[in-house]
Amino acid sequence: MLQIKFGTDGWRGVIAEDYTFLNVRRCAQGFANFLEDYGYGGREVVIGYDRRFHSENFAAAAAEVMAGNGFGVWLTQDATPTPVIAYSIVNKGAAGGINITASHNPPTDNGFKVRNEFGGAIDPVGLVEIEKRIPDNEREIRRIPLDEAQRTGKVRFFDPAPPYIQQLQSLVDFEKIRRAGLRVCVDPMWGNGSGWFPRLLSGGETQIIEIHNQRNPIFPGMKRPEPIPPNINEGLRAVLETQSDVLIVTDGDADRVGLGDEKGNFVDQLRVFGLLAYYLLEVRGLRGPIVKTLSTTTILNKLGKIYGVPVYETGVGFKYVAPKMLETHAMIGGEESGGFAFHGHVPERDGILAALYLLDMMVELRRKPSGLVDLLFSIVGPHYYARVDTPFEGNRQEYEAKILAANPTAIAGLAVTGLDTTDGYKFWLEDGGWLLIRFSGTEPIIRVYTETMHADRVDSILQDGLKIAGVWESK
Question: Which of 30, 135, 325, 392 meets the CB 3.0–4.6 Å disulfide criterion with 140?
Answer without folding.
Answer: 135
